[in-house]
Amino acid sequence: MTATYKVITWHINSDGHKRIDVVDVQAEPVIIPGFEDYTFFVHKSVDKDYECTVTESDSGCAIARGPDAKTVVDMAIAKVQKVGKAKFILAIDRMLSQMEQDEPIHF
Predict the structure, then answer these.
(1) Count of domains in the chain?
(2) From CA 107, how far away is CA 95, in angstroms rounded?
(3) Which of 40, 45, 47, 84 is buried deepest, with most CB atoms within 10 A?
């Protein structure tokens, strides 16, 4: 069932500070075995370099991006299961903490 979800887009300004935009997208829910406590969804990518993205709902952060919905869902399932629940929770918490701070992001 298609629903409206929010995704986060990041832009790094010329001064090195991030600008975060929240964008509404139409998406389909994705169930990742072992991670049923989380809401994932697949949608047309807001990043022009990709066609589809799987996003985690609480953080609005992309989990996988690729050429089509089936590919990105398979990629997201493999990635999240490989990382495991403990590391996944830490990664989401770290992402949410970074978004709360207005400091330069260093990759």
Answers:
(1) 1
(2) 13
(3) 40
* Other Cβ atoms closer than 10 A to 75: 16
Q: How confident is the model at residue 101 (pLDDT cuts 50, 70, 90)?
A: low
- Per-residue pLDDT reduced to its tens digit, 13-46: 788 877 777 888 899 999 999 999 999 999 998 8
Contact 28, 4 (CB under 8 A): no
Is there a domain that residue 96 lies in? yes
Q: Facing residues of 62 across strands?
A: 55
Task: Show the tokens assigned to 56.
Answer: 């985690």
Assess if residue 106 is contained within a domain. Answer: no
Paired residues of 30 in beta bridges? 40
